[in-house]
Amino acid sequence: HVDLTFHGCRVSPGKGHDFTFSESSLPVKAIVHAPIRGEALKPTCKLDAISSFVRPSRSEMRVSSDPRNELPGNRLVHDLILKYEGVTVSEASSITCKIGAVNNYVYDGELSGQLTIVSDVSGKVIGVGDVYAEKLKVKKGDYNVIVCLRHEDPVFLKTFEQQLLQVERKLESGISLPVYGSYSSAILGKNEIKKLTLAPGERAALFIGRVGQGVELPKDAKPGAVLTGSLHAAANSAGKQAPGGARVSLVCGPQKKDSTDDACSEKDKHEPGVEERIRDAKVAVLTKITDDTEY
Known about the structure:
Layout: E1 10-12, E2 18-22, E3 28-33, E4 39-54, E5 58-63, E6 78-89, E7 93-98, E8 113-120, E9 125-129, E10 135-138, E11 141-151, H1 154-158, E12 165-177, E13 179-180, H2 183-188, E14 196-198, E15 203-208, E16 226-234, E17 246-251, H3 259-270, H4 274-288
Parallel strand pairs: 2-17
Antiparallel strand pairs: 1-3, 3-15, 4-12, 4-14, 4-16, 5-6, 6-11, 7-10, 7-12, 8-9, 8-11, 13-15, 16-17
């Protein structure tokens, strides 16, 4: 005899199922709902991956001359070769090279085929992928990515000549964002919420707070990069994080200014420059002049 109990909570930003925001819009409000029964919640928000986006450095259109690739009616297959050079990985980790517009579409996909090849700068192939983007373990360094898209219509393929490549890197430790129970607490950075109890049918507001002062973002968190993770609210019977949650995407802005840079700039202001030294040298010469004819 087995008894099953179904319960859980729903986390929603109001529209859709994902949160996408920038640092300037934090704190961000979320609504958590217990539709079935009372729930004991442990809200957590963690960013565990970062995505960078690169444009192809070169593109090339090829026509397959192999008769085996010829389609009925003498139609030819065309290949668009996209080359992404100098893709930098800031630390050893797992990466996934994606083109969201065409990945994961098989039976309803428009392309005849697609292939992704990742190699290091010396040309050694690290891994390959197809319609399903694969995770690859790589070391710190620069890599080249070649993407081949296949279709019979070259005009259609030409629309992908400047296609962005998403390079998603897994973060080893992740970045935790604080979660608060009110906007005031979130904007002040006080009273982070650890536990919350909802009655059946009750709703409550959660606020995702700003990145902590002592938290360092990854080196590749440059403007345009996106940190992704999840917001979880429910806990299982063991008190651990329950599956599910809402997807969270944080669009990176400019890096925070380092206080040491300000100290260096202030020091530079007080140090005499070239012009000041030339002036001082001229004044020193003038003070030594005693005769008008010499002047």
